[in-house]
Design goal:
The complex is a heterodimer of chains A (about 120) and B (about 110). Chain A has about 120 residues and is mainly beta. Chain A has strands spanning about 5, 10-15, 20-25, 30-40, 40-50, 55, 65-70, 75-80, 90-95, 105, 110-115. Chain A is built from no helices and eleven strands. Chain A starts with a strand and ends with a strand. With about 110 residues, chain B is an all-beta fold. Helix content of chain B is about 0%, strand content about 55%. Chain B contains no helices and eleven strands. In chain B, strands 2, 4, 5, 9, 10 and 11 form a six-stranded mixed beta sheet that branches. The termini of chain B are far apart. Classes of the chains: A mainly beta (about 120), B mainly beta (about 110). At the A-B interface, β5 of A face β5 and β10 of B.
């Protein structure tokens, strides 16, 4: 398996623009997670899905952020409008379950820079 | 108060020594505890998880959990330069996932 796939790997945009990050989880994994990592705040869970349904979005910072999972093999995280404080590395991860023995596998991340 | 607290380091140890990484958490309902390793510019990868009080060993790595003190640690024996990375502690209360900001470890040859 190719692992979790994310695109783009790098994104540079200007403040106010819409940004869409994409993720393809590992086949057979029922859970998909979106994280944001910054030096100051570390790795933060934004939202996660189970069988394409959003379970907990309490980590989504504000209404400018939205996430969808239209099918088992694809998810998007959208920021509209983007702001410089959104600059971070965004990781997608997937797992079979959420108990400890079910490891979360992380994608390579998307490094977002908002100018 | 943050859900998970780690000393950001940097922690430096000589090659062959024991590296000790520590983590405290605030939610007493947490059931699962994880250690991830993250190399610079890479994504986190799971090293170990632990549920029960006490020690869990896997090769050169030992995770220690003390729920009464809300404390989890990771020991790395015979540290190697390849262990140089940031180590993230994570806890899993009520199907949430909280990560610490990580401890940077450098193993000096």
């Amino acid at each position: 398996d190719a692992g979790v796939i994310q695109s783009p790997r790098h994104e540079v945009t200007e403040m106010g623009q819409e940004v869409t990050l994409r993720c393809k989880p590992i086949s057979g994994h029922d859970y998909l997670f979106w994280y944001r990592q910054t030096m100051m705040r570390g790795l933060e869970l934004l939202i996660y899905f189970n069988n394409n349904v959003p379970i907990d979005d309490s980590g989504m910072p504000e209404d400018r952020f939205s996430a969808k999972m239209p099918n088992a093999s694809f998810s998007t995280l959208k920021i509209q409008p983007s702001e410089p404080r959104d600059s971070a590395v965004y990781f997608c991860a997937s797992s079979i379950g959420t108990s400890g023995s079910n490891e979360q596998f992380f994608g390579p991340g998307t490094r977002l820079t908002v100018l | 108060q943050k859900e998970v607290e780690q000393n950001s380091g940097p922690l430096s140890v000589p090659e062959g020594a024991i590296a000790s990484l520590n983590c405290t958490y605030s939610d007493r309902g947490s059931q699962s505890f994880f250690w991830y390793r993250q190399y610079s510019g890479k994504s986190p990868e799971l090293i170990m998880f632990i549920y029960s009080n006490g020690d869990k060993e896997d090769g050169r790595f030992t995770a220690q959990l003390n729920k009464a003190s809300q404390y989890v640690s990771l020991l790395i024996r015979d540290s190697q330069p390849s262990d140089s990375a940031t180590y993230l502690c994570a806890v899993n209360p009520s199907n949430q996932f909280y990560f610490g900001t990580g401890t940077s470890l450098t193993v000096i040859p």
